[in-house]
Design a protein that fits this description.
heterodimer, A: mainly beta, 5-stranded antiparallel sheet, 29 strands, B: Maltoporin, Chain A, 20-stranded antiparallel sheet, 2% helix, globular
Chain lengths: 457, 488
C-alpha cells in the first residue's frame, strides 16, 4: 500500500512582517493590514503602526528605486551594499532539507552553511517552520501522519535545543498553521476536517472549528482538507481542497473557501467557484499561496491538480474587498499568459510563493510533462502580475520542484529570499524587488535550503 | 501515560499442497513431475493506526517438470527444470471508516468508501499473475580438483492487474500497468583446487538480459512515455580460500554484480510513480576477506566453528524513490554508497544435546557522492541502517525421545540492535534515532515420522520489550505463534 504523501510546497512569508505579527499582513500589501493591526493591537499598537508605516514606505521605496534603477546604477549599488551589511546582521530561522528530514536553527546568511547545520535540530521534513514573538514554531508530521507542534524559545539570537512546549495531533497530517494574534494560532488538521485553535505560548487547545459538515459531497469529495489561508478584516479565508482521491492527491473539481470569524472561531459560510478547480493547497506550509493585495482583495490560485485531469481549470480567482463571494467576472488563467517567449504555456504554480506588492506574486512555476527529467532541474522562479496578467521568469537556472517552501519575503519587504539547487550545487539567492537583480547570499552544500524565515520581533 | 496499543486484525491462514512423483532411470537419472496448489487469506494490519476490515487473499496452482542426468559422458552432468505457476491475488480495502491512530473513538466515517489503510485511498485490486521459470545447470568435472559449471535461469512473468473500483466508476485506475517480461541470467564458473584442496579458487562470469513490456490503460493520470525497456549487462566474481592448517582457513573475494530495475521502478504505476525508461541498474562491487576456525577435538566441547568476515561494499546508481512530497515522480538513480564493516559468527556444539550460537555485525555506510535532488552531501552516514547488531541463542535438542524418528527442540534466542539514525547524520544535535532494542524469543518444536509431521510453538519477545523496526516503527510486543506442518 502506498503510504500517504504529504506535500511540502509553500513559501513562507508568515514572518516577513513579523513585526506585524501576522502572516496575512505579510502576504498582504503593505497598505492593507487590518489584520496586522488586529494582531498588534494587543501587544503594541505603536509598534504595529510603525510596522505599517514602515511597510508603506517600503512600498513607495520600491516604486522609487524601481524607477531610478535604470538611471542610476550607483544608487542601486549603494543600496545593495547597505542591504548586504544589513543582511549580515539579520538572523534567520533556516531549515535545510535532506530526504526525510529537515535541520532547523538560527544563523546569518553570511555564515558557513556546512558548519552551522551541524548545530541544528532535526525534524521530519513534512511541515512548517515559523518565527513568531520570540519563538520558533515547528509543525511537522511523521509517516503515520501524526504531527507535533513544537515551540522553541529564542534567546540572544539562539534557538533552544529543547522545545518549551509541544502539542500532538494524531493521524490528521497537520502541516499548516496560521497565527491569528498574539495568543491564538490555528493549526489545520488536513485530514481531520477541523482547524484547532491553540494558545501560542502553551500550545494548549482553546477551540476546535469543525469543518466536517462542509465536505463537498456534490463534487465527490471525501474530506474538506483545509489548506491555504489568508486573514482579512478579522476573517480567515481558508481554502478547502475537498480531496476526491487521496492516493493520488486529487483535489476537488471546483474552488471552495471557508470564511471563519477568528473572534468566535465559527465558520460563517463556505463559498464556491466553478471557474477553477480546488484552490490553495493542503501543503501550503507557510500559508502564503493566497494573499491580500493593497486594495483588500483576496486572491487564491488553483493549480488544478497540476493539470493531470481533464476538465480541471487552473488560474487565480479573487474575492473583492467587502465581498464574501468569489468575483464572478474575474479569473487569470496562467496557461493563457505569454511565458518564456511563447504565447501560451502549460505550467502551474507550485503551492507556495509570496506576495510582493503592486499585484505581483513571487512563485515557482513548472510542470511534470517530462517525468524522466523530474530530478533534472526544470522549475523556475517567476513573478506573476495578477493586475497585468503577465508572467516573468527570473534570471536563475531551473531547479527542482521542492523549493517552493523556501520562498520568503525578507524582513524589510524589499527583497525575496529563495532556495535553489542545480547540478553545480545549492544556494540561497536574494531577489531585490526594486531592481529585479538576483544575488547569491549563501552556498548550501548540506541539504537544500527549505525555510529562510527572518527573525524579527 | 500508558501508550500501550493492542494490534488486532492480524489473522493469517495459508496452506499449500504439492504432490510430486519421481521417475528414476528412464534415460534420465531422475524425472520429477509435480503439481502444487496453495492459498492465503489474511487480515491486513497497520503499524500506525487501527484497521478493522482490510484484507488480502490469494490462491494459485503450478506444474513442474525436472530432469537430471549424471555422467552423460565421464564427468559431465546436467539438470533442467520447467515450472509454471498461476496465481490470483486481491487486496480489498473498502471501509467507510478511517481511524486516526489507535483510539477506537477517533475516526472519520464517509458516505462512500474511503479505505482505512490510507485515508481516502479505497482499494479493490485483483491481479492475475503467470510465471514460467526454467533453471538449468551443466557441470563438467575434469577431475576431482577442477570443474566447470554453466548455469542459468530463464524467467517469464506476466501480470494483469485490475482495479475493480475503476471498473465500477471510480475516477482513477490505481492498479499497475499490465504487461510481461523475459529475463535471462546465465553464468559460467570454474572451481580449481590445489595442494590437496588446501587452496580453492572459484572464478565466475555472468551475463544478464531482460526485456519488459507494459500496456497503457485508461484511467491513469499519466500515459506511459515508453512501453518497453530492454537491458543487458554482465558481472564477474573471484574468490580464494586457503586452508592454512586443517582447522583454519583464510579467504577473500571480489564480486561485481547488478540489480535490474523492477517493472514498477521502470514503468511506475501511472499515478504518483512515474515512468522511468532510462533507469539504470544498481551496481555493486563487493570485497570480502575472512578467516574460519573449525575445532572438533577440544576439551568440554563437541565442536566449535568461528568465522570472521570483513566486507567493503561499493554501490552505484542506487535506485531510489521518495514519497515525501505529493508530486508525481519516477524512480531515479541516486547517490552511490560505501559500506564497510565486519561480522563474527560462532557456533558451538557443547554436546549432542546442547548448541550455542552467536552472530555480530558492525558496519558503517556513507554516501560517496553529492545528490542535489535531495540535498544529500558526500560522506554522510546513510540513514535507517543499523550499525551494530547481534544475536545469540541456545538450543537443547534430542531425537527418539518418545518414538523412533521423533525430534524435540527447545530454544532461546536473543536479538540486540544498537540505536541508529533515522535521517542522514548531519547535526551534532540530531536526536531523531531508532532506539536500541533487546528482545528474546522462546520456542519449542516437536516432530515425528522423520519430520514429516511437526508442531512448533514460539513466544516472540517474551519479556515484552519495546522493539523497533526501520523508520522507528514499533514491532509487536509479546506475541505467540504456532505452526503445524505435515508432508507426505
Amino acid at each position: 500500500m502506498k503510504s500517504y504523501k504529504s506535500l511540502l510546497f509553500t513559501a513562507a512569508v508568515s514572518l516577513m512582517f513579523a513585526a506585524c505579527g501576522d502572516d496575512s499582513s505579510s502576504n498582504a500589501s503593505p497598505e492593507e493590514p487590518s489584520s496586522s493591526s488586529v494582531v498588534k493591537e494587543k501587544s503594541s499598537s505603536s509598534k504595529a503602526k510603525s510596522s505599517s508605516s514602515k511597510a508603506k514606505s517600503s512600498s513607495s521605496a520600491k516604486a522609487k528605486s524601481s524607477s531610478s534603477a535604470k538611471s542610476s546604477s550607483s544608487s542601486v549599488k549603494s543600496s545593495s551594499s547597505s542591504e548586504k551589511k544589513k543582511s549580515e546582521d539579520q538572523k534567520y530561522v533556516l531549515s535545510f532539507m535532506m530526504e526525510t528530514s529537515q535541520y532547523v536553527g538560527i544563523a546569518s546568511l553570511s555564515d558557513d552553511q556546512t558548519k552551522i547545520v551541524k548545530n541544528f535540530v532535526e525534524a521530519p521534513n513534512s511541515g512548517s517552520v515559523m518565527y513568531f514573538n520570540g519563538s520558533v514554531y515547528v509543525l511537522a508530521t511523521d509517516n503515520a501522519m501524526n504531527s507535533t507542534l513544537s515551540r522553541y524559545e529564542v534567546k540572544d539570537g539562539k534557538m533552544a535545543d529543547k522545545a518549551a512546549a509541544t502539542a500532538k495531533f494524531t493521524g490528521t497530517n497537520a502541516i499548516a498553521m496560521k497565527f491569528i494574534d498574539d495568543s491564538k494560532l490555528y493549526v489545520e488538521q488536513a485530514l481531520g476536517d477541523a482547524i484547532t485553535a491553540v494558545d501560542t505560548k502553551t500550545l494548549k487547545t482553546t477551540a476546535t472549528i469543525d469543518l466536517s459538515s462542509y465536505v463537498d459531497e456534490e463534487s465527490g469529495a471525501l474530506s474538506t482538507v483545509p489548506g491555504s489561508a489568508v486573514l482579512r478584516d478579522g476573517k480567515l479565508y481558508v481554502a478547502l481542497n475537498q480531496f476526491v482521491d487521496f492516493a493520488n492527491m486529487i483535489a476537488g473539481p471546483r474552488g471552495s473557501v471557508a470564511i471563519i470569524d477568528t473572534k468566535t472561531d465559527k465558520v460563517e459560510k463556505v463559498i464556491y467557484t466553478d471557474k477553477v478547480a480546488a484552490v490553495g493547497g493542503m501543503d501550503d506550509m507557510n500559508n502564503t499561496a493566497s494573499f491580500v493585495d493593497e486594495k483588500g482583495d483576496v486572491y487564491f490560485y488553483s493549480n488544478a491538480s497540476y493539470g493531470f485531469l481533464e476538465g480541471y481549470q487552473e488560474g487565480f480567482v479573487r474575492i473583492k474587498k467587502g465581498e464574501s463571494e468569489f468575483d464572478k467576472d474575474w479569473v487569470f488563467r496562467l496557461h493563457d499568459a505569454a511565458y518564456d517567449g511563447k504565447n501560451k504555456n502549460n505550467n502551474s504554480l507550485m503551492v507556495g510563493g509570496t506576495y510582493i506588492g503592486n499585484g505581483q506574486f513571487f512563485g515557482f512555476f513548472g510542470n511534470f510533462e517530462d517525468p524522466t527529467n523530474f530530478n533534472n532541474y526544470e522549475w523556475n522562479f517567476v513573478i506573476v502580475d495578477v493586475y497585468k496578467k503577465t508572467i516573468k521568469k527570473l534570471d536563475l537556472s531551473p531547479t527542482i520542484p521542492w523549493f517552493a517552501p523556501s520562498i520568503h519575503l525578507d524582513a524589510d519587504g524589499k527583497s525575496v529570499l529563495v532556495g535553489h539547487a542545480d547540478k553545480k550545487g545549492g544556494a540561497i539567492y536574494r531577489y531585490t524587488i526594486a531592481t529585479g537583480k538576483v544575488t547569491k547570499e549563501m552556498t548550501v552544500s548540506t541539504g537544500t535550503a527549505y525555510y529562510i524565515v527572518p527573525v524579527q520581533d | 501515560m500508558d501508550t500501550t496499543v493492542t494490534r488486532e486484525h492480524d489473522r493469517y491462514y495459508s496452506y499449500s499442497i504439492a504432490p510430486f512423483v519421481n521417475l528414476n532411470n528412464f534415460y534420465f537419472d531422475r524425472i520429477s513431475l509435480g503439481a502444487s496448489f496453495g492459498g492465503m487469506d489474511k487480515e491486513i494490519q497497520s503499524t500506525a493506526h487501527r484497521v478493522k476490515e482490510a484484507t488480502a487473499d490469494a490462491f494459485g496452482y503450478g506444474l513442474s517438470l525436472g530432469l537430471e542426468k549424471q555422467n552423460i559422458v565421464q564427468g559431465l552432468s546436467a539438470a533442467l527444470s520447467l515450472n509454471f505457476n498461476y496465481s490470483k491475488d486481491r487486496v480489498v480495502d473498502t471501509s467507510h471508516v478511517y481511524f486516526f491512530g489507535w483510539d477506537k473513538s477517533s475516526f472519520k466515517e464517509t458516505k462512500r468508501s474511503s479505505g482505512e489503510m490510507s485515508m481516502g485511498s479505497a482499494t479493490f485490486i485483483e491481479r492475475d499473475n503467470y510465471t514460467l521459470t526454467m533453471p538449468w545447470n551443466v557441470d563438467y568435472a575434469f577431475n576431482d580438483n577442477h570443474s566447470l559449471s554453466l548455469s542459468g535461469l530463464y524467467r517469464y512473468e506476466s501480470q494483469d492487474p485490475e482495479d475493480k473500483r475503476a471498473i465500477s466508476g471510480q475516477l482513477l485506475n490505481n492498479a499497475g500497468f499490465p504487461g510481461y517480461s523475459h529475463s535471462v541470467v546465465a553464468g559460467i564458473s570454474s572451481e580449481n583446487n590445489f595442494w590437496n584442496k588446501r587452496i580453492q579458487n572459484v572464478a565466475g562470469f555472468k551475463v544478464y538480459y531482460y526485456s519488459i513490456k507494459a500496456d497503457n490503460v485508461d484511467g491513469k493520470l499519466r500515459r506511459l512515455t515508453d512501453d518497453d525497456a530492454t537491458n543487458k549487462d554482465f558481472g564477474y566474481s573471484e574468490s580464494l580460500r586457503i586452508k592454512i592448517v586443517e582447522s583454519f582457513a583464510i579467504k577473500g573475494g571480489y564480486q561485481h554484480s547488478l540489480r535490474f530495475p523492477t517493472r514498477e521502478e521502470i514503468f511506475g504505476d501511472g499515478m504518483y510513480v512515474q515512468c522511468a525508461p532510462n533507469l539504470k541498474p544498481e551496481y555493486s562491487d563487493n570485497f570480502i576477506a575472512g578467516a574460519e576456525l573449525d575445532l572438533d577435538k577440544i576439551p568440554l566441547l563437541l565442536r566449535l566453528h568461528l568465522e570472521f568476515n570483513w566486507f567493503y561494499l561499493l554501490m552505484d546508481d542506487r535506485i531510489y524513490w521518495n514519497n515525501y512530497a505529493s508530486i508525481p515522480r519516477p524512480y531515479y538513480n541516486s547517490v552511490g554508497t560505501k559500506t564497510s564493516g565486519f561480522e563474527i559468527d560462532a557456533a558451538i556444539d557443547v554436546n549432542e544435546y546442547v548448541a550455542l550460537s552467536f552472530n555480530l555485525t558492525k558496519q558503517d555506510a556513507e554516501s560517496r557522492e553529492t545528490d542535489m535532488s535531495f540535498g544529500i552531501a558526500k560522506g554522510l552516514t546513510v540513514p535507517n541502517t543499523p550499525t551494530f547488531y547481534m544475536n545469540f541463542g541456545a538450543e537443547f535438542h534430542t531425537g527418539d525421545l518418545f518414538f523412533r524418528d521423533d525430534f524435540f527442540k527447545l530454544y532461546w534466542f536473543a536479538n540486540y540492535s544498537d540505536d541508529y539514525y533515522y535521517g542522514w547524520k548531519v547535526s551534532e544535535k540530531q536526536d531523531r534515532t531508532i532506539p536500541s532494542s533487546f528482545s528474546q524469543d522462546l520456542g519449542v518444536e516437536y516432530s515425528i515420522m522423520a519430520n514429516k509431521f511437526s508442531w512448533s510453538f514460539e513466544i516472540k519477545n517474551f519479556t515484552d520489550e519495546l522493539v523497533y523496526d526501520k523508520y522507528g516503527e514499533s514491532k509487536p510486543g509479546r506475541a505467540f505463534a504456532t505452526k503445524v506442518k505435515f508432508s507426505l
